[in-house]
Amino acid sequence: MAFDPERVRLGRRGLLAGGGALALSALVAAPASAAETPPNPLEKPGWILDRHDEFNGALDPDLWIPRYLESRTTVERATARYGFRNNALVLRIDDDQPTYYHDDPMKVSSIQTGQRTNLHKDNRFDHAIPTDMKYTPQYGYFEIRAKSSARSGIHTAFWLTGRQDTWEQRGEVDIVEHAGVHGTSRFNWNLFEWSDPNLSTRTEQVGVGFDMTTEMHLYALEWTPTQLKLYIDNVLTRTIDQSLQYPAVFYLGIYEHAGWTGTVDPGDRRPKELVVDYFRAYKRAAGDPQSGQTYRIRNVATGRYLDSGAVGAVTLEPGSAYDDQLWTLTERQTGYWTIDNVREGRGHLDTDPDGKVIWSTERVGDDTLWAVTPVSGGFRIDNKQSGRGYLYGSGGSVGWNTGAADANTVWALERR
Prior knowledge:
The protein has two domains: 5-284, Jelly Rolls, CATH 2.60.120; 294-415, Trefoil (Acidic Fibroblast Growth Factor, subunit A) (Trefoil). The strands form eight sheets. Strands 1, 2, 3, 7, 12, 13, 14 and 16 form an eight-stranded antiparallel beta sheet that branches. A six-stranded antiparallel beta sheet has the order 4-15-8-9-10-11, with no helix packed on it. Strands 21-20-17-28 form a four-stranded antiparallel beta sheet, with no helix packed on it. 2% of the residues lie in helices and 40% in strands. It is elongated. A hairpin with a 5-residue loop joins β18 and β19 (314-317). By secondary structure, it is an all-beta fold.
């Protein structure tokens, strides 16, 4: 999210920030808007709470570092200005706050979950710092409830970057990058590849039907091995069919004079703020299917495994170590998955009109999409094609069945 000449030259939206010494705020909160979205319950069905901070009067020191990319500048310039109001974190830009660099007007107040020398590119260097990775997950569901005060020359952001164990691990995801120059109801949703050869940059502005500067709303990222999904107020809003394949550092910040966000009005009174009610991180519940993971798929009634054979054949066979019994589940649409055989040259689990189940290398369509639903003893696997039904195993054969949902339609997913 940091501004640099390369990003400007490429026409990307950059971010150069400023920092300063920590100070606490004792501002009076405005009344809540009736249009605000209330907090979600802490527990999330299908997920396990991994880490969280409800910001009840202090930062969790085991989760946050209150300095922005410190190795680029001095400790004083990198340190965030923040406080707490109504059990919410208030990150702010103050009049007496030093700029992030001594020769540039940019200011920032940001906290982050990890730190190392030259993290997130190496466009400047001031001093070496110890590597301190407090929380750098790989995949999960990450949610904030927040309100931005971005206006011209100001922007706020909830974002992540690769933790950079190798030079290629530098992908960036801007979950919510709200620049006031774009108005009060529009923000940037970005993926930048930087030096990751497996990513391609994608940038988009997302419009919402509310004022981000006066109302608290929910913003979340579901990060899987194959996709990045943006949720606004619990509604899936955008999907990118790419993904970072390494752990990441998370950031919350407010920035002034970033260079691409318009001119700051000298009469615009401070403080300028990002108010965050909470940060929550979840991982998939044990046993639930995870996109991009590989499984052996066992029929509960027969004890046999889904197996791919030659010329599209799919059968049930006793367990073996061969890769023709290994299947990768990928969530292609919300609630619908492809089931792909790992054996080279074989493809998606597919349905034929005559009740057969085969593998096919044809395009993804309703006949190769499956809902995977938890039931007692395992999962039912239901074909999306109209008029077809559950994956069904009997003896050594596999088909689809629109009849009774008995034990022959229950499957165990054994993660490999």
